[in-house]
Design brief:
Blueprint: H1 2-17, E1 21-24, E2 27-29, H2 31-45, H3 52-59, E3 71-74, E4 77-80, H4 81-94
Antiparallel strand pairs: 1-2, 1-3, 3-4
């Protein structure tokens, strides 16, 4: 469980420090607002989240109301937030950043 908490914290930090634009329900938000929104969503579902993949799926992939996928725009390139965050999670794990937090 501690590894998951660490990974989620790292992903939230990655979102905020990304300097990317987030598109949620057609509106654009800066990285700090995106983190705040996703962190709020996570707070509501935290007790049901057991993996960082579940965090991505349930808190950072789409609108809970409209089910419209979240997107990120980084360096002029737009992509779904899910794939962007999954790549970062793979990097976190490859670097063993959260290993040993058990």
């Amino acid at each position: 469980w501690a590894d998951t908490v660490c990974e989620v914290d790292r992903l939230l930090g990655f979102i905020e420090s990304s300097q990317c634009t987030f598109v949620r329900n057609g509106d654009r938000y800066d990285a700090a607002k995106a983190r705040a929104h996703i962190q709020r969503k996570y707070g509501h579902i935290k007790g049901r989240i057991q993996t960082a993949e579940q965090f991505i799926k349930y808190a950072a992939t789409e609108s809970s109301i409209t089910h419209t996928p979240y997107k990120v725009i980084c360096s002029g390139r737009e992509e779904p937030s899910a794939g962007w965050l999954k790549r970062e999670l793979a990097r976190i794990r490859a670097e063993s950043v959260c290993e040993g937090n058990r």
